[in-house]
Amino acid sequence: MKKQAILLAHFGTSHADTREKTIGAVEREVRAAFPEWEVRGAFTSGMILRILKKQGITLQSVPEALETLLAEGFERILIQPTHMICGEEYDKLRFQAEPFRDRFAEFSVGLPLLSSTEDMREVCRFYDKEFPREADEALVLMGHGTTHFANAVYPAMSYIFSEMGFERILVGAVEGYPDIEIVRKELGRLGVKKVTVTPMMLVAGDHAVNDMAGEEPDSWKSLLEADGYQVKPVVRGLGEYAAVRELYLSHIRQAMDAK
Ligand code: CO
C-alpha cells in the first residue's frame, strides 16, 4: 500500500491553550477517523510561525511539511485546510501546494469550512442548536473578515440565518464587513436586552480574547455593554465543537472521493 498522509493546514495561533483545544482536537479526531493515514499539521501564517519560533516552538509551514513527507517516502497526499473561507490564506495554501502536485503520485486539496451553501447551512444549524436564545437575547458571531471577495460569506451567513428562521443571530467581522457598528445598529432594531458573543473562527485566539471579550473600551463586549446590553462572551473556538470537527471530516471524505 502507498504511504499516505493527510496534512491539516491551519492558519495557526500563538495561544497555546486554544491551540490544544481546537487545532489539537481536530488533529486527534482526524487521526482517529482515518487510521490508515498518517496525520500531520502545518501552519499557513508566517506571522504566527515567527511568533512561535520566538517562544521556542518550531512548527512547519505547508511547503516544509510537504518536503518532509516527500523525504519520508509518502506518495499519496491530501491537504485539508481548517480555514473558514476560500480567502487569502486558502489562495496562499493552493499557491504553495501546487508545485508539489507532480512530485507525489496522488495529490488533492480539500475545501475550507464554509465553501458551499450547504456548508453554510450546516454551520447555521450548529449555531442555532448550540446557542439557544431567550426572547430578549441575541447571539452575535465574530467572524474574522477579509478584504478578499470571499468576505461575502459573512453577510451570506446572516442571510441564511434569517432565511432558515433562526432568529436573533447576527454576524459581524473584526476585519471585514459587516463591522461592529453595523451589528450595533441591527441589535438596536432587535430590541433585545442580552447579547451572547462568540467567535466564528477555528481558534479562540487574540481576536476572541482581546477584540471580542477584552476589557479595553473598544472591544465588542465593552461597546455592547456601553449600549446597555448584558453581554456574555463565550470564548470558544469552533474547533472545540464536535459537530464542527465532523464537518471537517466530511470535507476530507469529499476530497478523497473526488480522486
Ligand atoms: Co486578524
Folded structure, characterized:
- It is a single chain.
- The protein is of the alpha/beta class.
- It has 2 domains: 4-113 and 240-258, Rossmann fold (3-Layer(aba) Sandwich), CATH 3.40.50.1400; 117-236, Rossmann fold (3-Layer(aba) Sandwich).
- It contains 10 helices and 8 strands.
- It has helices spanning 16-33, 46-54, 62-71, 88-97, 117-130, 153-163, 180-190, 206-212, 220-226, 242-257, and strands at 4-10, 38-43, 76-81, 106-109, 137-143, 169-173, 194-199, 230-233.
- The strands form 2 sheets. It has a 4-stranded parallel β-sheet, with helices on both faces. The protein has a 4-stranded parallel β-sheet with strand order 6-5-7-8.
- Helix 5 (117-130) packs across helix 6.
- The longest helix has 18 residues, at 16-33.
- The radius of gyration is 19 Å and the shape is elongated.
- The two termini are 17 Å apart.
- The mean pLDDT is 96.
- Bound molecules: cobalt (II) ion.
- Cobalt (II) ion (CO) is lined by residues 144, 175, 207.
